[in-house]
Amino acid sequence: MTTATKADPDLEKFARETRALANAQYDSRQYRRILSMPLNMARARVYTLQKAFWNLNRRDCWAFAQGHAPMDVKKLIWEHEEDELAGNKARGVEDHYSLQVRQSREIGLAAADFRDTPMREGTRMCLYSYLHLVNSGHWLKSVAACAALEVSNSSEWVDGGGMSYRMGKRFESQLGIPFEKQLNAKEHAEVDVEHAHMLMQIARAHRGAPGGLGLMMEGMVESWELDRVWKGLLADMMEEIPV
Prior knowledge:
There is one protein chain. This protein is mainly alpha-helical and 243 residues long. It has one domain (9-239): Heme Oxygenase, Chain A. It is built from 11 helices and no strands. It has helices spanning 9-24, 29-34, 41-68, 71-86, 96-103, 111-116, 121-134, 139-151, 163-175, 183-206, 212-239. α1 (9-24) packs parallel to α11, α8 (139-151) runs antiparallel to α10 (183-206) and α8 (139-151) crosses α11 (212-239). The longest helix has 28 residues, at 41-68. The protein is globular.
């Protein structure tokens, strides 16, 4: 695991705090609720279609963060976003949004559902909030706010696996969809381990900037606050549908 440099106590402390906060997400009321509620196909469709808006918003947020960042960080973000926007030709993997659309056939969704389903008001509120977070402050805070969600989805940072893995296993156990057939969940469970390394690369390179690690921690904390609200609203939407 390459999360901190032993010779730098500030980086070690930063990595420890980051790990603790990422794991704490899964102990929150909102996360426990969405990871324990009974699933059926209709609830899975609501979860998937509203989360698709969130996935697209991630691309916007990373683009804003990249625009504000210095050149070395722009390059890191470019490499990260290539998987999301263009896929991985070497491994024969298409872009992640297309993977999600294709995976969703398993729960009875078609491409038209992603095009025609309206965004719910709770989804819109959270996505606007994310855009404000990443486009209204220091670039270190913006980048860390984006990277936080990669960290809390990474099995190297979170005990028991990230949300992609956990929800994928719930779809498997409750809906009978093998994890291997959940193309997007499987891909994110793997690549977000690598993507989460970017946080510490940036922390090492720019910890000496004014505000440095403090700005990065501030961005992560606020991003995870929004993430908890978002998970709670998703749970509300799903629970509107009886099991």
